[in-house]
Amino acid sequence: MNRPNPDDLLPADFDRFVLSCLADAPGGIDEFSLIKVLAAHFPDTLFAEPGALRDPLTLFQTHFLLFHALYRLSDRLTEQGLELQVHALSIRMLPRGQVAEQRTLLREADPLRSYYLDWEQWLTTQGEDVERLLKGFSQGGAGVSRQEVSAALEVFELREPVDARRIKQRYRELMSQHHPDRGGSTDRVQDVNQALLILQRYYGKP
């Protein structure tokens, strides 16, 4: 049985092209937009498969391949003094020193990293497994894991039970507290904004 490895599925200049995309989007790029760019630039790869964004199993495989490649790239960038933040809503590259002293739980708590670097997950996940995942997501926020929600709640210094109204109230409090115009940290504001996107996808908007 043929067991492809990541290098079989990724184009040779994948890293170089992704880095150029991130350089053109210093504020970050979301996963869906990056996949569309990859599909246009690499038409003979999984990213350009007709079902890449429709068929559940192909969507999972495309998503997993991308995140597997991004986490591998992240490890290599660390050696160059750079940090690659990997999240479905925002993939971006930063100088490591910019966040070294004020790393938040959202950045440090990354329980998904080992999952995406385990290529056996890509090889063994079947259509029925993806259906179970989707069913679980439908009971909460679509495309948002519980680990991501927990990390985002830590950024907001909240504990469940919470609702969309409380999240919005806490967001205003944090923005008022950490806004750069009031002596706050730009990095902290970015973390709060990223956490808000996760929580809104899970809890909805008030």
Quick rundown:
With 206 residues, the protein is mainly alpha-helical.
Q: How many domain regions? A: 2
Please tell me what the overall shape is: globular
| CA-based gyration radius | 18 Å
Secondary-structure element string: HHHHEEHHHHHHH
Give the helix tally: 11
Unreliably modeled segments: 98-109, 136-140
Name the beta content range: under 5%
Biggest sheet overview: 2 strands, antiparallel
**Mean of residue pLDDT?**
80
Could you explain how this protein is built, in words?
This protein has 206 residues and is mostly helical. It has two domains: 1-139; 141-206, DnaJ domain (Helix Hairpins). It is 58% helix and 4% strand. It is built from eleven helices and two strands; from the N terminus they run ααααββααααααα. A two-stranded antiparallel ribbon has the order 1-2. A hairpin with a 6-residue loop joins strand 1 and strand 2. The longest helix has 23 residues, at 56-78. 23% of the residues are buried. Residues 98-109 and 136-140 have low confidence and may be disordered.
